[in-house]
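Thread: quick sanity check before group meeting

JM: Hey all, I'm pulling together slides for Thursday and realized we never actually wrote out the predicted structure for the chain we discussed last week. Dropping the sequence here so it's in one place. If anyone has concerns about the input, flag it before I start.
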Amino acid sequence: MQKYFKRQDRSLKRLKASVMALAMAGMTIFGNGTWMPGANLSQVYASENLLDISEYGPAGGQSPAANGMIIAPAGTSTTEASANANAGTASSSGTSSVVIAAAPSISTTSVAASSTQETSAATPVMTASQASSLVASSVNLATMASDGSTASLGDTVNSDYAVLYDLDRHRIVAEKNSSSVIYPASMTKIMTLLVAVEHISNLDDKVTITQDIVDYIYKHDASNCGFAAGEQVTVRDLLYGVILPSGADAVMALSRYVAGGDDAFVALMNQKAKDLGLSANAHFVNATGLYHKDHHLTVRDMAEILNAAMANPTARTILTTPSYRMTATKQHPSGLSFSNLFLSRISGQDKNGVSVMAAKTGYISQSMYCAASYAVSANGRHYIAVTGHADSAWAAVYDHARMYKNYTDK
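JM (edit): ok, ran it. Output follows.
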């Protein structure tokens, strides 16, 4: 086993060296795995797809294209395919669920051909009318009890921790160690997004990325959007940057914009945890999800956080967006491109007609690969699934697909 890890470490070092060589040759990697001409060493060094330092991870036996690591010739770009672009959803049959309001007016207009055009573009996974039929449970998922009909997932999933909720019938459909404490990794950013949007009034405000944010990203090998020091980024773009590329730089900039500092923002997160009625095991130490022994919760707690986020129109719009191009800036005149790779990857899995509408992943070595997703079944029922400690990014995808296929519409 020690020899295996030594080989893996050597392979990773060789890979990093290759990346640096490519950077010097004039290539850049965007957060969605796209290689683009015009080197930016900070983006290359912190690329989460290539260096396996965040939730998207290695291909796990898949081809580089399947892993989102798409090589584009000089002068071209590659956009991650949209997942379930126009998937329809039926009306809920739940009697005590909360119907989610239609999406707000976050720009989904196409980016003009001019690279200096100051617009942003999102590819929504559903229309506003489809979104209006989604529901969030009015029952606290964090404290909901299993019953005699709750299935035990056991070895049917790779993840050590898992839970699947039927939001319309207010029940836990299946679970595995769902009351155990986990480290949520970047799933934390669902709470970060929720707290942020509840305290923001102007999505077009601009925030300056400071040097200390960039330095922090390098020091901690944190996943990031690729923002440069001094870059002025809209609040809207920061929100998308929190979720799609899982950008810690976007998180830190938003924390300071909303609360004036990282600690003050975390205090808002812990207050929100109390307001949501999460378990006593739910506690946040940071807004990025980086490891800390006191930063933890259960998969049930995370399900309730996602449930609350899906009830917020702005948060829901971002969580259900497969791909997004940010507003042009001086540092990035064509705008950075972001993608939600989990939505892309799970769209091709057999799920018995289930459409996965929203998702956020996470990875740190202490929690391995985690994911939280929201889905609508072929019969129009609404589900939330959360998993933790899968062996790989693809194992997490397969676990969610397997749960939706085997345990929905029963």
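AS: nice. Residues 2-54, 58-117 have pLDDT under 50 and may be disordered. The longest strand covers residues 355-364.
JM: adding both to the slides.
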